[in-house]
Amino acid sequence: MLLFAVFVYWLDRYEKEPKILLGAAFTWGALVAAGLSFVLNTSVGVGVYLLTGSEMAAEITSSTLAAPIIEEIFKGLAVLLVFLVFRNEFDSILDGLIYAAVTALGFAATENAFYIYNYGYQQDGWSGIFALVIIRVLIVGWQHPFYTSFTGIGLAAARLSKSSTVKILAPLAGLTAAAFTHSVHNLIASVVPGLGGFVFGSLLDWLGWALMFAFVLYRVYAEKRLLVQHLQEEIALGVLTAPQYQTACSPWSRTAAHMNALFNGRYTATRRFYRLCGELAHKKHQLAKLGDEQGNQRIIDRLRTEMQSLSPTAAA
Where are the domains of the chain? Predict the structure, then answer.
């Protein structure tokens, strides 16, 4: 799951999120969300069993009703904390997706360890571990990031809107979509027995993931358009040069510039400069769309000053 999180981080091509915040989100998912969800899910299952005397009723109620809501709320809280406390780092729809996915991968790391040990190793030894790793990591490894991404999208939509209605309804809609898709997955696993149910559920999962991945790629492209639009005038202002502008707007050129800088002692300045390019484009977009909330103009001025100081040493 940590390797999956590194891949998610890599997808954020133009305006990287702070590693410390992503690490905190992953840790929240692995410890807080997973721990509290386990306690509450178990309590619900035990409560239903005591009321009905039916193990099946307890299992279906816990897995299809309680678990999706409980788990998505606790995972979503990490994204909400970033949204509220580190608002200046929450700049786009893609940011919401990144924080949500990384939190969910932390959750999945703990859940996978629990399932692989208890239902793999303890029941069938090493062959059980192998089988559960194939299922939990390779076949359904992206399920939790997929669900929780809807919560991230909802919070990001609220972040980028002036409408009070959107600010209230978008996060609720995102959380509802997260819990609903989670519930559908668990319901299929609970009520459709055998290989047929497994295949059908897996195909449905992969279809959802493919659509979400296509949406992520679209958001990456949308971020590129932001840089193309908002960095053009920075050339005339002396913040960056025309070659640096071209490099900033291309992930492949950025990679080449980073590699070039690595061999001439300018890597740190180059890396910092192009990250600031992404931040500047987003803050200018927010200033145009939302006004000077959260001191956007002050942040833009600070970013321009730092970029001007780095520009002479940043490779293009």
Answer: 2-223, 231-313
